[in-house]
Amino acid sequence: MAHTQTASLTAVRPGRHRLRAVDPNEVVDLSRVADFLPPGATLLPAPPHALPALPGRPPMVGYLVLVPADQQPHLPVAAVPSPAPVAAEERGPVTIDDVQRIAVLEGEPLDLTYLEFELLAHLVAHPHRVHTRDQLVTTVWGYGHVGDGRTVDVHVARLRRKLGAEHRQTIQTVRRVGYKYTP
């Protein structure tokens, strides 16, 4: 007979999320969770494709809390600090316009697919930072994506072709790790 224990729950401050690893044999008493939900809220199991998977670990379990729109807490909108200005030589030859969703290379717009634009915009936004293939898959494609680092390799190769021979080296390979943008 398998030994099970009931998961302990702690109060969480409003607006804060809490994740906790649960043993596969641990039983979560969902009736105790209901005490923490706002009135009228519904608790549903999260679809497995919406949860991150950790290599060598059992699949995660998650729940979605649905709150009626008229009972949503009105949280103040935090001011988003403007990023520090980056010198022109630091930006490099690629300029990203997120509003118009255009990538411009030395004054000429690049013809990019949706994912090519997202990948290039992410790399350009974080120059000199090394991104692993898994980080890029998670950030650009999202948790629900079924694929591997090879997908990133293919998209980077396409981006380099579109950047041309003169600028292809701006996306550098960091062997056995991933990629970085060096303007």
- By DSSP, the count of extended strands is 8
Low-confidence stretches: 1-16
The percentage helix is: 10-25%
The order of strands across the largest sheet is: 3-4-5
Q: Strand-and-helix sequence, N→C? A: HEEHEEEHEHHEE
Number of helices: 5
Secondary-structure class: alpha+beta
Distance between the termini: 61 Å
Shape: elongated
Radius of gyration: 22 Å
The percent range for strand residues is: 15-25%
Protein architecture, described:
The chain is an alpha+beta fold. It has 5 helices and 8 strands. The protein has helices spanning 30-33, 88-91, 114-125, 133-141, 149-163, and strands at residues 42-45, 63-66, 94-97, 102-105, 108-109, 131-132, 171-174, 178-181. A 3-stranded antiparallel β-sheet has the order 3-4-5, covered by helices on one side. Strands 6-8-7 form a 3-stranded antiparallel β-sheet. It is elongated and about 60 Å long. The model is unreliable at 1-16 (pLDDT under 50).
In short:
The chain has 183 residues and is of the alpha+beta class.
Any chance you could write out the topology, listing elements then pairs?
Elements: H1 30-33, E1 42-45, E2 63-66, H2 88-91, E3 94-97, E4 102-105, E5 108-109, H3 114-125, E6 131-132, H4 133-141, H5 149-163, E7 171-174, E8 178-181
Antiparallel strand pairs: 1-2, 3-4, 4-5, 6-8, 7-8
Helix pairs in contact: 3-4, 3-5, 4-5
What are the defining features of this structure?
single chain; 183 residues; alpha+beta; three-stranded antiparallel β-sheet; 8 strands; 24% helix
